[in-house]
Amino acid sequence: MFLAGCYIYGMVLNVRADSLSERMAELHLRTINNPSIVIDKKKYTLTLYSDSIEVKEYRAVFGKGNQDKQSADEFSTPAGEYEICEIDTSHIYHKFFRLNYPNISDLRVALRMGLISRQDYESMSLQTYYSDSISQSSFKWRKIGIHGIGQLNFLFKNLPFVFNWTDGSIAISNEEIDELYGVIQKGTKVTIY
């Protein structure tokens, strides 16, 4: 009974949420210019901006760990400045916007902490310099990005509470990732706090 009540409450919250096009109309925006995303792990939000205008806030969930991701074997979500470097429209979690994680800042921290060798640091640093991201075959860290929920979308999007379940990525509902897909592109800036 309690679980059914929770789902009904979650569905009511989702029905009341404005779509991206409704929010844009309220703000008198015809297009999203210079899109960027700010993710706040403490507030469980992902916010879309057009230039400096806050357009829409989404409820987001993160990795299972509570600290910022620093190594491959952690299931935490990293913090820092990233860019979307790849867009996969046929992913197990509906759509996947891969972030350029680890970037040079992450590599420096990993080297200082002794999590990677000097040789690995130099090799991966060169890759980040010459391409958008490090090739998956050359490092052991998981791909980190923003994705939908996939087949369990109805179940997870209607939970009225937060349940962090990813391996370090940021998850929003399939409908919300579809909205973002219409306005973001490779190179979109993503800041995670």
Note the main attributes of this structure.
alpha+beta; eight-stranded mixed sheet; L,D-transpeptidase catalytic domain-like; 30% helix
Write a structural description.
This protein is of the alpha+beta class. The protein has a domain at 2-17 and 60-101 and 141-184: L,D-transpeptidase catalytic domain-like. It has helices at 2-16, 20-26, 104-112, 118-130, 153-157, 174-181, and strands at residues 35-40, 45-50, 53-59, 80-91, 94-99, 145-147, 170-171, 189-192. Strand 6, helix 5 (153-157) and strand 7 (170-171) form a beta-alpha-beta unit. The longest helix is centred in the first third of the chain and has 15 residues, at 2-16.
SSE-based structural type: alpha+beta
What is the level 1 CATH name of the domain at 2-17 and 60-101 and 141-184? Answer: Mainly Beta
What would you call the shape? Answer: globular
CATH 4th-level superfamily of the domain at 2-17 and 60-101 and 141-184: L,D-transpeptidase catalytic domain-like
Query: What is the helix fraction of residues, given as a range?
Result: 25-40%
* Element pattern in H and E: HHEEEEEHHEHEHE
State mean pLDDT (0 to 100 scale): 85
Low-pLDDT windows of residues? none
What Rg do the Cα atoms give? Answer: 17 Å
- What name does the CATH topology of the domain at 2-17 and 60-101 and 141-184 carry? L,D-transpeptidase catalytic domain-like
Q: How much β-strand is present in the residues?
A: 15-25%
Query: Number of helical segments?
Result: 6
**Alpha-carbon distance between the two ends:** 37 Å
**In the CATH hierarchy, what is the architecture of the domain at 2-17 and 60-101 and 141-184 at level 2?**
Beta Barrel
How would you write the strand order of the largest sheet?
3-2-1-8-4-5-6-7
